[in-house]
From TrEMBL:
Superkingdom of source: Bacteria
Any GO MF annotation of the entry: 2 iron, 2 sulfur cluster binding
Domain Rieske: start-end pairs: 5-111
Keywords: 2Fe-2S, Dioxygenase, Iron, Iron-sulfur, Metal-binding, Oxidoreductase
Pfam families: Rieske
InterPro entries recorded: Rieske_2Fe-2S (IPR017941), Rieske_2Fe-2S_sf (IPR036922)
PROSITE patterns assigned: RIESKE
Name this polypeptide is given: Ferredoxin subunit of nitrite reductase or a ring-hydroxylating dioxygenase
Length: 118
């Protein structure tokens, strides 16, 4: 069985919002979770265009103003929330790296540590 890290409770992320997390305690967010209703989508907080650049312009600001796309503040690339695919911008056709979110019966959200090390 893999080691896991608890992120938060499901209700801690408002509907149609995103939140960044630092599960490895590096001092900065390395992944983020987007909530759309009862669905949660998690990705590594790294733009595929710049390689080591995080996406938000400030803490937890991963989505565009309408809350319909993930946006990279560095160059405005837009990513589909459900798939992580870049639909507009210099990395069009590339994708964010997905991270599996585990939702427990008590509504806590977890990620597997091996998903974070890639």
């Amino acid at each position: 069985m893999s080691k896991r890290v608890r992120l938060c409770r499901a209700e801690d992320i408002p509907d149609y919002c995103a939140q960044g997390f630092d599960p490895n305690r590096r001092g900065f967010d390395t992944l983020f979770v987007v909530r759309q209703g009862r669905y949660f989508y998690a990705y590594a907080d790294v733009c595929p265009h710049y390689g080591d650049t995080s996406l938000p312009w400030k803490k937890d600001e991963y989505l565009d103003a309408a809350g319909e796309n993930i946006v990279c503040a560095a160059h405005g690339a837009l990513f589909n929330i459900r798939s992580g695919l870049c639909t507009s911008g210099p990395c069009k056709g590339e994708s964010l790296r997905p991270i599996s979110v585990i939702r427990e019966s008590d509504d806590s959200l977890w990620v597997a540590l091996e998903d974070l090390e890639q």
